[in-house]
Design goal:
It is built from nine helices and 14 strands. The chain has 305 residues and is an alpha/beta fold. The longest helix has 24 residues, at 62-85. It starts with 5 loop residues before the first helix and ends in an 11-residue tail after the last helix.
Length: 305
């Protein structure tokens, strides 16, 4: 039996992940009619239905569930093939995508992009912002700068920095509400929380102090927006301690108390991309910027890739 190959499998994966023909067409930048035709063609060649077409979208069949792992392996091999085929290209040119958060993009990576534009004008950097981790084995990014260390064996990770997380306010806030008192469960205080479905559950404490009696005035899905909210004087919030160096209006409450889990930043590169000249150049500049901007305030700074 002859199969059309990776192009049709790519359509299958996009349809599986989006549960719709329209979603797959958007993801692949392909006409919806073409997506439908390719899926139908693949089903004919397999002799089995892959999706039930329903008013609510595509519903994978048992066959689709069975072949999913093989399709994902084809995807990983395709990405690896492309990366390895570029391995002999020592030119500092081409596209490099970085997956990161809005906070890290604004506070660090924009500086890296500026250096890259001056130093390597033929390297084009794309930033993909979001709290969800990019799947680098699927080619969603060549480099990631994230706050969690990945466990996948095909990823190379180096820690760029580690900070305490403290409780912060501004003088405007303290003038209005006064400083909180230990042991009072943050009673009569407004707090803002970082609450994102891709992060750990929101703890019921702030730097170890119960927040039982606090007023939660904002639940924010963006860490940068949390910083902006606290800086505006509208609430108390937990922030990584390097930010008091960047934003002098931030005042740390209870300087001897910190959240148990530190705020870490990791640089991650897929092993197949690590030696590409353009990827290596971007990776080195990212490390350079972090070391330059935070070295006086960071613990356990490690070397670049």
């Amino acid at each position: 039996m002859y199969l059309s190959g990776w192009d049709d499998v790519k359509v299958f994966l996009a349809a599986f992940r989006t549960n719709s023909l329209r979603g797959a067409s958007i993801r692949l930048s392909m006409d919806q009619t073409t997506v439908s035709r390719r899926l139908t063609n693949l089903e004919k060649q397999l002799g089995a239905k892959l999706f039930y077409r329903t008013p609510d979208g595509l519903v994978p069949t048992e066959v689709a569930e069975r072949v999913l792992g093989i399709a994902q392996e084809m995807e990983r091999n395709s990405v690896s093939f492309l990366r390895l085929s570029e391995g002999s290209n020592g030119e500092f040119s081409g596209d490099v995508s970085i997956a990161t958060t809005d906070r890290l993009a604004v506070e660090f990576l924009m500086s890296a992009v500026k250096i890259l534009r001056d130093r390597y004008p033929n390297i084009n950097v794309t930033m993909k912002l979001g709290a969800q981790m990019a799947d680098m084995s699927r080619g969603e990014a060549e480099i990631a700068v994230r706050i969690q260390r990945p466990a996948a064996p095909d990823l190379i990770a180096k820690r760029l920095g580690s900070w305490d997380v403290g409780l912060y306010a501004t003088q405007t806030y303290l003038d209005k509400f006064g400083p909180p008192e230990l042991g009072q469960h943050l009673a009569n205080h407004d707090i803002a929380l970082y609450d994102n479905k891709f992060s750990s559950p929101v703890p019921d404490t702030m730097v170890g102090e119960s927040r039982r009696d606090a007023r939660v005035v904002a639940r924010l899905t963006s860490s940068f927006l949390l910083t902006t909210f606290v800086r505006s004087g509208m609430a108390l919030g937990e922030l990584p301690c390097y930010q008091e160096q960047r934003y002098p209006e931030l005042i740390r409450i209870w300087p001897d108390k910190a959240r148990k889990k530190k705020y870490e930043v990791w640089k991650v590169v897929h092993k197949d991309a690590a030696e590409l000249a353009r990827v290596k150049a971007v990776s080195e500049v990212i490390s350079e910027v972090f070391e330059r901007d935070i070295k006086p305030f960071v613990a356990d700074l490690q070397s670049s890739l």
